[in-house]
Design goal:
The chain is mainly alpha-helical. It has seven helices and two strands, in the order ββααααααα. α4 packs antiparallel against α5, α4 runs parallel beside α6 and α5 runs antiparallel to α6.
Length: 182
Amino acid sequence: MKAVSNGTHREIEVDDDFGRQARSPGALPRDDAIERAHAELTRLKPQLEEHVKLQCQQLEAALLAARARDEKHLVHIADAYAASLSIRDIADSIGHSLVGFIAANLCTIIETADAAHMDYPAAVIDCHCDALRLALSPPYLGKPLRELPELSAGLSQTVRITKAMAERVAAAAAAPPAAKAS
């Protein structure tokens, strides 16, 4: 593997079968491949936007249903996680970076809570649900994340809080029984 710098970014040439095929004579030049990918993304954008919209509706419905903390609570959280994964993987590529950021945060929050075997932090999830509604509103839809530093910083802070809570839960679970009683 070797790194090539062109001034604005660093390209890493990977020496694997795929990399060798991509560099072989007669292979599609990189710029042409990028141009074709952009054209295909432009062609698919309406369908992808509809998919993200549907997944956002499913995510919001799952998060609202999870608030009830009934016997289907874990099913609702799993549905929210699946929708978040789907949104996270697509939203940035169609210009919805805030929606993708929120979905990625929800994935992290749910994964963190699962790994720590702790309750899902309702206030943190509600905060992200409210942020998702805001991100889908006309004034915010399609805004780049860099134009919303306070919102993104606040949402990132809630993820850090969730991770800190998970660390405390894990530390308490690992503590000897005598330390737990005191």
